[in-house]
């Protein structure tokens, strides 16, 4: 039995040297990475959403781009970074918008207020659920659960003014004394 194991080990080492066996089999894959692979394989992306998975394998990070085709934020280009801890899917990823925008559910630091990324998270939710949730933030901003109270107050009090403020902020203008990133 000992000789058999030695022969197997020698064959494997020789195959690795010859380049016939991928060395990635020697690298352990975490449960998080396995789940992410499964989630990404089953994605059905809407036309206004794209994903960059180039850093997904190395550090469990996805870059998500959304260009809403309707609503207050129509035509804006929004890039999110979703960072998945080793505890995914037990815990949700940390999702951050990489631009400063005027939105009731996204603060000036890019933190996102989305119930499925907090108290309503469940391991049955996946990347597809997160994408739909982010897209819905742009189609139907929620003034009842704000991170940016000033934006929520304008949305509730005067939706026409909110629309004007959103358009100005997407163009990189100043709204209520705060400068925003140009995302149009």
From TrEMBL:
What reaction(s) does this enzyme catalyze?
[E1 NEDD8-activating enzyme]-S-[NEDD8 protein]-yl-L-cysteine + [E2 NEDD8-conjugating enzyme]-L-cysteine = [E1 NEDD8-activating enzyme]-L-cysteine + [E2 NEDD8-conjugating enzyme]-S-[NEDD8-protein]-yl-L-cysteine
Q: Which Pfam families match?
A: UQ_con
Q: Which CDD domains match?
A: UBCc_UBE2F_UBE2M
- Where in the sequence is the active site? 113 (glycyl thioester intermediate)
Q: Which UniProt keywords apply?
A: ATP-binding, Nucleotide-binding, Transferase, Ubl conjugation pathway
Its EC number is 2.3.2.34
Protein name stated in the entry: NEDD8-conjugating enzyme UBC12
What organism is recorded for this protein? Lachancea quebecensis
Lineage start: Eukaryota, Fungi, Dikarya, Ascomycota, Saccharomycotina
């Amino acid at each position: 039995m000992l000789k058999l194991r030695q022969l197997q080990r020698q064959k494997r080492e020789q195959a690795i040297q010859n380049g016939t066996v991928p060395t990635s089999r020697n690298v352990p894959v975490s449960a998080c990475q396995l789940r992410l692979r499964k989630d990404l394989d089953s994605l059905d992306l809407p036309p206004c959403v794209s994903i960059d998975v180039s850093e997904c394998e190395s550090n469990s990070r996805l870059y998500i781009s959304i260009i809403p085709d309707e609503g207050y934020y129509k035509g804006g280009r929004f890039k999110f970074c979703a960072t998945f801890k080793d505890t995914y899917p037990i815990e949700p990823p940390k999702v951050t918008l990489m631009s400063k925008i005027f939105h009731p559910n996204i603060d000036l630091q890019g933190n996102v207020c989305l119930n499925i990324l907090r108290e309503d998270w469940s391991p049955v939710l996946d990347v597809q659920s997160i994408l739909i949730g982010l897209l819905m933030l742009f189609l139907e901003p929620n003034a009842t659960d704000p991170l940016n109270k000033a934006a929520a107050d304008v949305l509730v009090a005067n939706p026409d003014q909110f629309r004007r403020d959103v358009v100005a902020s997407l163009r990189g203008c100043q709204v209520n004394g705060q400068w925003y990133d140009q995302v149009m």
